[in-house]
Amino acid sequence: MTPRDMASRIVRYGELRPCRTAFIDAHTPGSDQKENFTIIGGGVSESPDQHVHIQIPHGFNIGAAGQPPNCRNSLHSHRTAEVFFVLKGRWRFFWGRRGDAGGVVLEEGDIFNIPTGIFRGFENIGTDYGMVMAILGGDDAGGGVIWAPQVIEDAREHGLVLGENGRLYDTKLGQDLPDGVAPMPVLSEAELAAFPEPEADEVVPVCVARYWDLTALADKAPAKVIGEHGRLRDRPGFEVDFITRASAGATMHSHDRPSVLMPVRGHWRVTWEGGSVTLAPGDTMSVPENLDHAAVPAMTGEASLYHVVGTDDPAGKTWTR
């Protein structure tokens, strides 16, 4: 594969194309400065304006959220796995019907495997623009987002209506629901009762891995982060490894399905028969299936990256006590 062929499978951080109207809370004060990025796969955006950088199916989606300080992503749930790692800034994640069941603060490089079936949200509590990278299970990411009722109600007050077809309509722009399309129904109290409310001390120990702990674990070999034998024991339809300078190897290898490289710190040189490229933090590279390749740090200093590859496992575990 030539470098030109591979260029279409590399998304540079500086070339990410944001969507500022991706979700139902795009006009809601406190959430109206979000930027959503869909890097690999269709994602779960509710807006036709969302740009998809790489549409090749991987068995999972890669996206990102960029937010200024004090900007919040509203409470929602997914039917498949949702995994975040912090690329830039400090973030607070919270969960529960009202967002008060539990919470955790993540620093750069930390990773959070949020169980399916619970409402979750997050906000930038740092002092500068921040970015979190997201991995969503499945090629269709479970068919969209399930919003907490108050999010739908608040959005309507600010002009945005979500149709049952999963599309947004902006009444401030004169848009109405098309004929035959009803508003997305609000969950009933009986339906809401099925969403668990785990406390922080139940979730954090089994769902959060800290960057510096993973760095220590990856001193001789890549650290298994998410997977059957991972630090976070789950099988959500993909596996995540963490690689550092100490555990990187120059031996060529391949996978039987596409894999993704996502640098966290440092510059990484990826080589394959036919070319090479250097990746920086925030870049995303899709490596084709059955392509021999290797990734090693390109410069001195700290270097780390997350590696993602799909599996045949289902969407991931729903939270159970």
UniProtKB/TrEMBL annotation:
Gene3D superfamilies the UniProt entry points to: Jelly Rolls (2.60.120.10)
UniProt xrefs under InterPro entries: Cupin_2, RmlC-like_jellyroll, RmlC_Cupin_sf
Domain of life per record: Bacteria
SUPFAM superfamilies named among the record's database cross-references: RmlC-like cupins
Domain Cupin type-2 positions: 68-133
Annotated protein name in UniProt: Cupin domain-containing protein
Biological classification of the source: Bacteria, Pseudomonadati, Pseudomonadota, Alphaproteobacteria, Rhodobacterales
